[in-house]
Amino acid sequence: MTTDPTTIQVHQELDVRGLNCPMPLVKARQAIVKLDVGQVLKVISTDRGSVKDFQGWAKAANNVTLLAQSEEPGPDGKTLYLHYVQRTK
Amino acid sequence: MSIATTETATMEVDTQSTLATNGVGDPVQTLEQRIAALEARLAEMESRIPKDKVTMVVFSGDLDRVLAAFIIASGAAAMGQDVSMFFTFWGLNALRKQRKLQGKKLTEKMMALMSPADTKHMGVSKLNFFGAGAVMLRQMMKEKNVTSVEELIDLCAEMGVKMVSCEMSRDVMGIDPSELRPDVETGGVAAYLADALESRVTLFI
User: Fold this and answer.
1) Which InterPro entries match (chain A) (predicted)?
2) What number is the average pLDDT over the span A44-64?
3) Could you tell me if B78 and A28 are in contact, meaning their C-beta atoms sit under 8 angstroms apart?
4) What ipTM does this complex have?
5) CA distance A79 to chain B (A)
6) Active-site residue A21, yes or no?
7) B129 and B144: one domain?
8) What are φ and ψ of residue A48, in 5° steps?
9) Which CATH number fits domain A11-87: 3.40.50.2000, 2.40.50.100, 3.30.110.40, 2.20.70.100?
10) Which single residue of A61, B76, B126, B166 could bond B54 by disulfide (Cβ 3.0 to 4.6 Å)?
11) Is the Cβ of B50 closer than 8 Å to some Cβ of chain A?
12) Considering only alpha carbons, which residue of chain B is nearest residue A54?
């Protein structure tokens, strides 16, 4: 990802902390179809597998693109994985 | 032919008529024919390339295998794929809502009694230890906040995953259609193959 996450305008945040495969992806999918084309969904997950999951989704689907991904330490010591998904169609 | 004012406008038209009269219109026609032929071939090829589709045969009636099947199905559906699941033999137990015994022959009754009544009664494929393995798996899943099989099946149905029961094995195993989930279709091997042939991913679980 080349986009700096801090520069992205987020239209909706989705908190899926604590949920594991396949829920982060399923919930993200449900959320993104409710957005308009061009809008961005920020997904906050604690699932380590979600990093590759979101990359795979963006690659396979033709209606979303992954703008950026980042990691940051969460409040309780668990790492948070952030995904910035934009609806393109 | 006027040259001065309408030069550009008439230029093209003049070139065309010049070509035609000189018999040099043939290459253009040949090219057009070739393009038309190529377009026809392209259209035919496009209709044959695999679609954004995932098909699965669910043959196993083990909790761990059925769980894997539904995780893949829900993941694929979340990624925008068209998902079809074909349940046959032991996999049919995953679609059962309630077990019925009346109106069945003795062998069918025995088969019904020895099969798990639904996913909640399924064992794991290894280390089941007369059911303890399945209980442990469910416990571990709960601890790690993994969605249960029952919830996943409903989620899949909600996301439009097509679930088809194999008519032949359902009949052979003595399962009555009314025992299965109402949202399940029925089909035969050709129903599965028709979908599988145009899918990019097909799995046997």
Assistant:
1) TusA-like (IPR001455), TusA-like_sf (IPR036868)
2) 91
3) yes
4) 0.78
5) 16
6) yes
7) yes
8) -60, -35
9) 3.30.110.40
10) B76
11) no
12) B79
